[in-house]
Amino acid sequence: MIILVADGLDKIKQGIESREVRIGIIGMGYVGLPLALLFAEERFAITGFDIDASKVDTLNRGGSYIVRIPSTEIQLAQKNGFQATADYGRIRQMDVVIICVPTPLNEHHEPDLSFVTDTVKAIAPHLRQGQLIILESTSYPGTTEEVVVPLLEHGNQAGLRVARDAVSPGFYVAFSPEREDPGNDTVARRDIPKVVGGCGPAAAELAEAMYGTIFRRVVRVSSPTVAEMTKLLENIYRCVNIALVNELKQLCMKMGIDIYEVIDAAKTKPFGFQAFYPGPGLGGHCIPIDPFYLSWKAKEFDFCTRFIELAGEINTAMPYFVLAQTVAGLNEQRKAIKGSKILVLGIAYKRDIDDLRESPSLTIIELLREKGALVAYNDPYFPTVGHGRHYDLNMSSTPLDKLAQYDAVIIVTDHSDYDYRTIVEQSQLVIDTRNATKGIESKRVVRC
Ligand SMILES: NC(=O)c1ccc[n+]([C@@H]2O[C@H](COP(=O)([O-])OP(=O)(O)OC[C@H]3O[C@@H](n4cnc5c(N)ncnc54)[C@H](O)[C@@H]3O)[C@@H](O)[C@H]2O)c1
């Protein structure tokens, strides 16, 4: 069904209600694919767009490339009309287009919006009246109004403009941040309230109606800018609090206090405290990156976001702290890091997931190698690791037998599959950055 704006908002909402609207989701990654499947579960016919031909092929063959999404879920979605394509010409057939492409940092630690701008430029020539375009990719406040809207308006030959109310002709635009926590099964995705900000009330109303079909609660805010800032506040809050416990951990170690015991006690307070845990450094596509989208934008206003900068400094230093602890642990055993055999446990950036983007393990491996250590790794989710934007490792996961051959084993990612008692029993030295060996008493363990 192609719905025109002249049909009125009620008609479009009826189309949503009857599942006749066609939804295109651009970017079939960790965010876009699960979103497509949620809509497909609700009997919407979804078209997934991606420039990665191997993803398009896999999906159209009914396969999956994300460990936590079984192929059967893709096949079920196909029964409801799900298909994948790389052909932007098909955008014209969509009533709603949701953009879920990456928003990384460039080599100067500044926002790299090229994936978003490439996508929007590719959509623009196929825009038509009445379409709703929603950006989900995390970005700085102002991206939707200052970048997405102008590119859409200037890139279409029909002279279409954004419709800021229900009677004006044009297309609708909204921003709605993704708030998923990969690997966290305690909250079902549909129970995570969806924040929506529209370029005008009509866009917000439509986006709310759309997301209301798959999320139990939709939270409407006054503008895309507020929605963009909401997402950044959530991630900055985490980044700053993780930095705080990372710093306090280092102090506690000097004072002979167990930071984990302290956090466990503090979190019994029924108000005013939320537990965050220290670790080997930040990972993933969100917490290490998103705060810097805001600190970059803040410069436009002659404003320095000191909390973000300080948190970044502390969190970025954590892999170096792990290296220092490893050197110290080996030193206690009269060994030098140069020439030592070291096994890194876990390449994923956090427990039980198949995502290694920005993983502290990658930095730790590189730091160990620079010091002349002979490094191996094990990760049940990554049989091999090649090269990416910030690493070039070309390694294969090594089996977990013969642990005694390593001078040190570093637990960087605390996957649940690991048998930590056996690991401690069989290793010469264990550097535990995640408190994974809690309750296992051994002089061979350094908790840091
Ligand atoms: N992964 C998370 O847990 C998470 C959580 C919240 C928010 N986010 C945000 O969501 C956005 C997407 O993240 P992700 O983790 O899904 O990324 P991803 O790398 O897993 O997936 C992005 C997909 O977009 C595709 N793509 C890139 N450019 C394209 C283009 N021009 N046209 C079509 N497809 C294109 C890529 O091939 C890839 O498949 C980012 O802004 C991220 O910050 C991610």
Explain what the structure shows.
With 448 residues, the protein is an alpha/beta fold. The chain has 13 helices and 15 strands. It has an eight-stranded mixed sheet with strand order 3-2-1-4-5-6-7-8, with helices on both faces. Helix 5 links the parallel strand 4 and strand 5. The N terminus is likely disordered. Nicotinamide-adenine-dinucleotide binds next to helix 5.
SS content category: alpha/beta
Main sheet, how many strands, which sense, barrel? 8 strands, mixed
| Unreliable stretches | 2-6
Number of helices: 13
Sheet-strand content, in percent, reads 5-15%
Rg of Cα set: 24 Å
- Please write the string of helix (H) and strand (E) elements: HEHEHHEEHEHEEHEHHHHEHEEEEHEE
Q: What proportion of the residues is helical, as a percent range?
A: 25-40%
Give the structure's gist in a few sentences.
By secondary structure, this protein is α/β, with parallel strands linked by helices. It is 37% helix and 14% strand.
Topology of helices and strands:
Blueprint: H1 9-17, E1 23-26, H2 32-41, E2 46-49, H3 53-60, H4 71-79, E3 83-85, E4 96-99, H5 114-123, E5 132-135, H6 143-155, E6 172-175, E7 194-198, H7 201-211, E8 218-221, H8 224-255, H9 259-266, H10 290-299, H11 306-332, E9 341-345, H12 360-370, E10 374-378, E11 384-387, E12 392-396, E13 408-411, H13 420-426, E14 430-432, E15 445-447
The chain binds nicotinamide-adenine-dinucleotide (NAD).
